[in-house]
Design a protein that fits this description.
Elements (H helix, E strand, L loop, with lengths): L23 E5 L1 E3 L7 E8 L15 E9 L2 E9 L27 E5 L2 E5 L6 E3 L5 E4 L15 E2 L6 E6 L6 E6 L5 E7 L10 E3 L3 E6 L2 E3 L11 E3 L6 E6 L6 E4 L4 E10 L5 E8 L1 H11 L18 E8 L3 E7 L5 E5 L11 E6 L10 E6 L5 E5 L4 E3 L3 E4 L9 E9 L5 E7 L9 E5 L9 E8 L2 E2 L1
Antiparallel strand pairs: 1-5, 2-32, 3-4, 3-33, 4-5, 6-7, 7-8, 8-9, 10-11, 11-12, 12-13, 14-15, 15-18, 16-17, 18-19, 20-21, 21-22, 22-23, 24-25, 25-26, 26-27, 28-30, 29-30, 30-31, 31-32, 33-34
């Protein structure tokens, strides 16, 4: 562990500090009772720089996936594996001409179950296939049809199985929109005319539209070639949200207040046909606070830099499809990140959303997994306890569920200082109650990003 080295950057310290190796463990200790129907694998991705590597920002460490196999009410195994891509052999993410090296993936952001396979995703490259045992298989580019990176946050239409995504580039065309069939065929691609080279991390779909976040965090050529991420907040860049029919066509752009959103919770069309988009929004101070912390601000420099009092909040934009902003503003004042929903509700109206309070923060007081009820306005929470850091809470619906929140929230909770981590399973209908099960993991798991539940569907394997 690197916790005692206070001259190291933040992403090598404490809860974010990487682990130095790959391990396997079996027959994990479980407190409580794992629901027997949770038969599958929970895989969670994140940044884990190789020993001796200081990449300059938490977002660009090599990807490592931590996996837990649940079956028959038991936790059969835990294992962790780096996603073994060409970057581990020295390949550069960006080519000499300023384009992305699409197969030189760090593969560190999320996990996707698609086309009979499992993929590790990052927004600067094509997907990387991994096995059900976490071994790296190789890059996947839709049989050569995908010519751009793929976002780490694709959206799946639960009714059709179609996959919607985009890729952004540092050279024109800056953003390209894609639609793929459930069986791995790239059906169409279309350029999206954003103002310039931006960092577009996420987007949204509704029943009829795709929504693009053209927001003021931009690529800065002067930062290229230096350690860290070559992006910064720009007061000059005009913040907009774009609306495009899902089937393709022109984009209508709507000016909005200067905010940045790494993550969307969901979007839908209300009974009046208006588009309601919800996500986690940062003003400039909140963005620069987290960017400084993730970019390596030393622990000895104080509690997170000059903007540490600002934080991101759940935020809502309401838009007329004709291109008029009806309203925008914060839904709640709690500092959160990593919003999730029942993914079967993607693009449709959802009553419940989940998030994490105090991820990557400097003050861990009251760190919690949070549930929002969009009908009553009520907020519920499970506080993880002093010293513990919650990760993204992934919703898994119960078999035969009769209500939207009937199911479980699965999260890896890690300790800020001790060599300890847990897989926590909460009843989503009663989040403030104690977890239904806690799986004790054999080591600390660094704070990470996004996960996927991969149910077992046949004796031969997964998916």
């Amino acid at each position: 562990m690197t916790n005692d080295n206070h001259t190291a950057p933040n992403y090598l310290l404490g809860g974010m500090g990487p682990v130095p190796d790959e391990i396997d463990a079996v027959d994990l200790k479980v407190d409580g009772a794992l629901p027997p129907e949770l038969d599958g694998r929970y895989f969670r991705n994140g940044s884990n720089p190789l020993p001796g590597d200081h990449p300059g920002h938490d977002f660009i460490g090599q990807g490592m996936i931590h996996g837990v196999r649940l079956s028959g009410g038991k936790a059969a195994w835990y294992r962790n594996r780096w996603v073994k891509t060409p970057t581990m052999r020295g390949a550069h993410i960006v080519n000499s001409d300023g384009t992305w090296n699409l197969t030189a993936s760090i593969a560190n952001t999320s996990v996707l179950r698609y086309d009979g396979a499992i993929f590790a995703l990052v927004e600067t490259a094509v997907p990387y296939a991994i096995s059900a045992e976490l071994e790296t298989v190789g890059p996947y580019d839709f049989c050569g049809a995908l010519k751009t990176p793929m976002t780490a946050h694709p959206k799946r239409d639960a009714a059709t199985g179609e996959l919607y995504f985009f890729g952004y580039s540092l050279r024109p065309p800056f953003v390209t929109y894609h639609v793929a069939s459930p069986d791995g065929r790239l059906l169409r691609s279309e350029q999206v005319g954003v103002t310039g080279p931006i960092m577009m991390h996420d987007f949204a779909i509704t029943e009829h539209y795709a929504l693009f976040l053209d927001l003021p965090v931009v690529f800065d050529r002067a930062l290229a070639g230096k350690r860290g991420m070559p992006f910064r907040w720009s007061e000059e860049y005009p913040p907009r949200i774009g609306i495009m029919p899902r089937s393709g066509g022109g984009v209508r752009w709507i000016p909005v207040e200067p905010r940045y959103a790494f993550h969307v919770a969901n979007a839908h069309e209300d009974p009046d046909g208006r588009i309601v988009l919800e996500g986690v929004a940062y003003d400039r101070d909140a963005f620069e606070s987290i960017w400084e912390r993730l970019g390596g601000l030393s622990a000895s420099s104080g509690a997170g830099g000059p903007h540490a009092s600002s934080h991101s909040v759940l935020y809502r934009w309401v838009i007329e499809p004709s291109g008029t902003l009806v309203s925008e503003g914060a839904i709640d004042d709690l500092g959160i990140e990593f919003p999730t929903i029942d993914r079967g509700r993607t693009g449709l109206s959802n009553r419940y959303a989940y998030a994490v309070h105090q991820p990557f923060g400097t003050d861990r007081t009251g760190s919690a997994i949070v549930k929002y009820d969009r009908v009553t306005g009520r907020r519920d929470a499970y506080e993880v306890g002093e010293g513990w850091i919650p990760g993204e809470a992934l919703f898994v619906a119960a078999a035969g569920a009769t209500s939207e929140d009937e199911g479980w929230l699965i999260s890896i909770v890690t300790h800020a200082t001790a060599d300890a981590a847990q897989l926590v399973v909460n009843d989503a209908t009663h989040l403030s109650a104690p977890p239904v099960a806690v799986v004790h993991l054999p080591r600390r798991v660094p704070e990470g990003f996004h996960g996927e539940w991969i149910p077992e569907t046949s004796p031969a394997g997964v998916i």
